[in-house]
């Protein structure tokens, strides 16, 4: 008995309707990327392991899919290492490549390798799949697309302002009103860690703080204690666990908390500039707010951090995120190249649009016209008409065989075809064709010598 086929957990097949909806999102994001002056690049689906490992923090590294070396890879592991059964020492012997975890680190590698070909500041966009060995759940997959826009070669905060505007433009065009763009600054987090005496535990502090909305205040404190952060330090950071209030209230609270930290005050200054500039320019549909618990959990951020939440009432994780990284290319030998970027979470945006019924009604209309097949002579006339319609940009087809009328009409209904064309023996004699409007149930006759009349009606 043949084995029932399956696909790996966290991956999906997509039917034509789903592809049409995904392309709708892709097209809007891509069009806005181009409007803002970003240029497209692509990088390989897998990278050398040393390109990726160590760039995402301990948790990120655990989620990287490693690719086994080809051939008899086990024979290259000596008996002592194999007997030890330590994956950390065996892994480098049996795997040298890994599926990309995101598009940012491969982009940094790309910039370093192609630096002499690029004009700086270089604005790039990239829309490709990434892979993470995460636990699958709603809105979280092991294979998913990221849609990134980054600028490297400029430390101007106007880039952050522009990326916030880009988020707003895309979500407004998707009619996703009320999205919340949450913003923080890594310098603020570093300043807080400094003033509470946990400067050496910055990564542990921010990773735990970033989980506040998932595990709550008690969970965060417990994790911080487990990482060696003292109870006294956690108590000093307690204002971060309070209801956050509006932007002005949070800035006032942070002013008091960071008065003795130069780095923290620098982060506050950057935050204020971005907030004030956006307030002057205005946003169409999104809301920009400070979230001091936002850390993003990625080691390479050094300045502004962004995360986008869906409108209130929609239960979904972040649908976008990003931030400033002052020296990401430095890990590949190119120092002092600042960059900032954002990402759109396509798969989660899809689920939100579906939940809110925001996809256009006719988005999955893959066929506009279907010609019924009545037989050999009639089919020839229908084929000629279909050719004319296709040349005019109409999605048209003919049913391939002269099956029963009921079967052909059912096919048209299943394909959500708005117009069905009938060319029978009578129509051949009169050199005409009949168009049935499937939605209204009405019929109208047109001359085969004046197909333009039907095209005008379709418009």
UniProtKB/TrEMBL annotation:
Subcellular location, principal: cytoplasm
Enzyme class at the top of the EC tree: ligase
Assigned EC number: 6.1.1.21
Domain Aminoacyl-transfer RNA synthetases class-II family profile: 1-400
Gene Ontology CC entries for this record: cytoplasm
InterPro entries given in the database record: aa-tRNA-synth_II, aa-tRNA-synth_II/BPL/LPL, Anticodon-bd, Anticodon-bd_dom_sf, His-tRNA-ligase, HisRS-like_core, HisRS/HisZ, HisRS_anticodon
Biological processes annotated in GO: histidyl-tRNA aminoacylation
Keywords for the protein's UniProt record, in alphabetical order: Aminoacyl-tRNA synthetase, ATP-binding, Cytoplasm, Ligase, Nucleotide-binding, Protein biosynthesis
A Gene Ontology molecular function term of the record: ATP binding
Residue sites binding L-histidine per the record: 102-104, 132, 146, 150, 296, 300-301
Catalytic activity: tRNA(His) + L-histidine + ATP = L-histidyl-tRNA(His) + AMP + diphosphate + H(+)
Subcellular location: Cytoplasm
Taxonomy, superkingdom: Bacteria
Subunit relationships: Homodimer.
UniProt similarity note: Belongs to the class-II aminoacyl-tRNA synthetase family.
Protein name (record): Histidine--tRNA ligase
Organism: Maribacter caenipelagi
Organism taxonomic ancestry: Bacteria, Pseudomonadati, Bacteroidota, Flavobacteriia, Flavobacteriales
